[in-house]
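Teaching assistant's notes for section 4

Start the section by putting this record on the projector. Ask students to predict, before seeing the second block, whether Extracellular solute-binding protein will look compact or extended. Collect guesses on the board.
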Amino acid sequence: MSRRTSRYTNRGTSRTQSALRVFLAACLLAVTAGACADGRERTLVVLGPWTGEEGEAFEAFEAMLSKLDDGTGQTYTYQGTRSLRETLVAQLEAGAPPDVAILNSVGELTEYARANRLKPLPAAAAARAYPPWAPPLVVDGTRRTYWVPLKVDLKSLVWSREGRSAAAPEWCVGLASQATSGWPGTDWIEDILLHQAGPDVYTRWATGRLSWRDPRVREAWTTWADLLGDRSKASVDQSLTTSYLGTPDPAAEAGAVPRGLLGSLAPRCTHEHQSAFIRYVYADDRVRADPSAGFLRGRAAHDGAYEVAGDMAAVFSGNPAARTLVERLSGRTARTLWRSEAKEELRPFFPDATDPQPTDPTGRRIAGILTEKARTLCFDASDVMPPVLRDAFHRAVLRYFGKPTGARLDELLGQLDAVREDAAPETGTGTGRLPASGVCAPPGG
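Reveal the predicted structure now:
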């Protein structure tokens, strides 16, 4: 989730990919003449969200992946970008999609599948599509699996420095994230609703089957405002412009890892609501991660429910080797290689409890929650929603945070309801939504 740019980005721009596709098309027409003798037709392009430190972790994995070659000479090029949706849409419109894309939005993946942009996965990969990360879809009357999780994360967490009391937390908030600013706030509201109203209500809301003006949804918003408490204009402005990663230490060298919000905004704040991925920022600090349920004014009956997210691989090209690649990426051998090559604090969480998990103390604790403690896992609600509704949710959170009044909230919820209705396949322009059965599930694997 780092904002820094991976060195893979420079060698994987859409212009380069388009040129490669043109070259390959010429190869297909002139194959008998040996036009592809240099082997470039065997390179598969993988588009993904990992840049900076995470990109470096995947770079090591990609290098090791080449050793899985079965004699075909297959090679791979990875393009990491923080503007994943925009890059993918541009490539699809240009007729030059990547062979494989790794996305965290099942709402987007659902739209692509029902628009026949995705290729169904082979049985071996489909068997690893653990719920709730990769539910099967019915497309053109046939039930198939179109994506599989490569790595997963736990979102229902609160971070604090050791020794800080949980009795009266002062919350660190950073809502800035380039084009997707606002998602740290949507994570708050989603987590609160899950623990106050439970998985069933959460699922109906996430899939567009419950009004945004429902009192339980409204209560999640007002609870968030109450938890944050009164804030000065200067504090609000700071949160709206501060990255969710915090800021680098002024004394550190250029390009240093940010200090996280606990290091950037302290001592004015003591606790942070953030996903498990943030552990690499706090790798050298005495920072503790606890389940968020005890902080959110929820019901004890829902303490065993946790919000999760994931990075899913899907096939966008007709090249059979792309399906084979996804099968390899989701397999135990590849996961073992990825874990061994990544820095300890960047070792991924996998959905199967039998797969290798992180070994650092914080990582082990989080993995234990994911695979042993949790009774129900619910996929990030905004990533379940159609992209147009997700983006509207992000913007609404920013507006509400700036002015958390009842009148402002009523206005925003009404606007979100209008977007929901327009995105619904039954009444509006939407291309489909995820089935209710695909949002929450017991831990799989």
